[in-house]
Amino acid sequence: MKVALASDHGGVNIRKEIASLMDELNIEYVDFGCDCTTSVDYPDYALPVAEKVASGEFDRGILICGTGIGMTIAANKVKGIRCALCHDTFSAKMTRAHNDSNILAMGERVIGPGLAREIAQIWLTEEFEGGRHANRVGKISDYEEKHL
Ligand code: RB5
Prior knowledge:
Layout: E1 2-7, H1 12-24, E2 28-31, H2 43-54, E3 60-65, H3 69-75, E4 83-85, H4 89-97, E5 103-107, H5 113-125, H6 132-147
Parallel strand pairs: 1-2, 1-3, 3-5, 4-5
């Protein structure tokens, strides 16, 4: 699995925590910044990461900002992206099992680094259940094909 990782200036610390988690788990990733010496705009990070995942260049993405909300809204504008904002471990597990989410978003001003690490570890390792959930996800893809 190859993961595209990015944050704005509001998510630098958790981004570094997640990078070190992926080092420990031997998960291949590319860190797309920001270097965040100054304030940046979250769509400039969310949209390129989402496009890299949608194109298949990367299997998954992880995006961090202050709340995780801006990253989620922006990433979900890209066709084929199912970005889930998770601030608890149950949601992280379920969004992989049921939604086959391909991007995880979190907010550094909402949760601490320890919980962010647990959420990311669960999200990175949980499998999609398929079956009736594949049918439901397929309805979203069908909508995208027809309308986007
Ligand atoms: C930046 O101040 C903040 O707005 C951003 O990190 C994020 O929370 C947006 O949703």
